Amino acid sequence: MHGEELINDYAMFKDKTHKEGLRDKLIERLRLIEYDEEFVVKYQPKISNIHHDFVGVEALIRWNDDQLGFIPPNQFIPVAEKTGEIHPITIWLIEHVCKQIKEWQVAGFNVGKVAINLSNRTLTEDTFVVDVENIINRYQVDPSLLEFEITESSIIDDEKIALMTVKSLRELGATIALDDFGTGFSSLTYLRKLPIDKMKIDKSFLDGIVEDSLAQQFLADVINLGSTLSLGVVVEGVENEEELNIIGQTSADEIQGFYFGKPMSSDELISWDTSYNEK
Ligand code: C2E
Ligand code: CA
Ligand code: CA
Ligand code: CA
């Protein structure tokens, strides 16, 4: 019994030092790397719920580090948020996306809106809106092609400033989507007041939904809530035809998920679009 506890303690200690070691390495690497060399951006298609048209993409960052290998965003974004590195990373990403939009336009490839995830630190950075405006002007990108995905937690931290940033982004002409809806703790009256255009329902709402009629009703009700608030509703994490059929019977506006396409490079997206149109 006592020995077992010691072993568990040791295992926990090892795990903790391993995690701390990795964290330190991540912090160091994030400071040193050239973003252009180590980050790539993948694009996941979004589809309309009614005619299944291709209506937009979400930009998702990928980091393949020379020394540490592939590090998923769920692991390094929280670290970058703590160190403040998330700000230059987000600016790099927005610039990368705007360049990409221009290239697509020159090639006659229409991807609709491009959604970009924003972290809490970004929304309270005083130069953020001006930085975005400068990038948009430099690349001559129509701001209505940009959508910013924010989360409840990213607003709550420093509400006044974050909300001002959100409003300014909308005034520029970009749209705002509330990501991971249903995982936060905001009251519904609070949500009603948020200056947003869309609500993205968290993929956990789809867990086990195919066999569970109560879960289906629940999802439909949450989607209706968004429609009642005059918000566009996006359902993410759609992985199979059964889930697609369930969502098809709701008032959701857009769908995103592996069923239609995984996050892809620009080249992969272009071939995906060609074969999607042939279907
Ligand atoms: P998120 O914003 O909720 O992004 C959706 C995540 O779900 C993506 O994971 C995507 O690959 C994954 N996904 C899409 N369709 C499906 C599906 O059908 N089934 C399942 N199981 N998963 C699906 P990813 O790319 O690993 O990103 C994880 C999280 O990391 C994102 O969650 C977001 O919070 C953050 N993240 C990713 N890229 C960025 C970025 O450029 N900036 C910021 N601030 N955060 C980012
Ligand atoms: Ca997102
Ligand atoms: Ca999400
Ligand atoms: Ca998320």
TrEMBL record:
Tell me the protein's name.
EAL domain-containing protein (Putative c-di-GMP-specific phosphodiesterase class I)/NO-binding membrane sensor protein with MHYT domain
Provide the taxonomic classification: Bacteria, Bacillati, Bacillota, Bacilli, Bacillales
Q: Where is the EAL domain?
A: 23-277
